[in-house]
# Entry
Amino acid sequence: MMKKLGLTVLIALFLYSASGFSQAKLKFGHLNSNDLFALMPERDVAQKTLQDYSKQLEDQLVAMQDELEKKYTDYQANQATLTDVVKKTKEEELTAMQQRIQTFQTNAQQELQKKESELLKPIIEKAKKAIEDVSKENGYTYVFDTGTGTLLYWPKDADDIISLVKTKLGIK
# Structure
């Protein structure tokens, strides 16, 4: 019994000292990636490009809707004088235009999302690389992102490395 207790204490002491030793080597850092991203000048350029593209798509949509509205108004004004065959043709044309507009809206939303991904990907990659470089250069074992809400543990002595990453990116 005493031998078992001694062995248990010895194992516990070994585990305690080993865990204390390994924890002493760990260096934690944290930053808010949303704050970092907001400071990157490339983000403003990407947002402007995306807004311009969105405006282009919106202008095309408005032009299509205006054309549909004009044709519909014309159809309603002349409906009484049109033959059944012409009425049917005009109605089919209006329906087809409406469907094209709906398809355009769906495709425009998808294209806008695709464009956003294309514009943001290199910026995100640049930030990731800077974070990785700073982490390696400064000996961080773990760096937590406080901007994503996924932070599980944040020791009081962890360092906020956003200033180091900003310097790495040349941001003041």
Observations:
- Helices lie at 2-25, 33-39, 41-78, 84-137, 162-169.
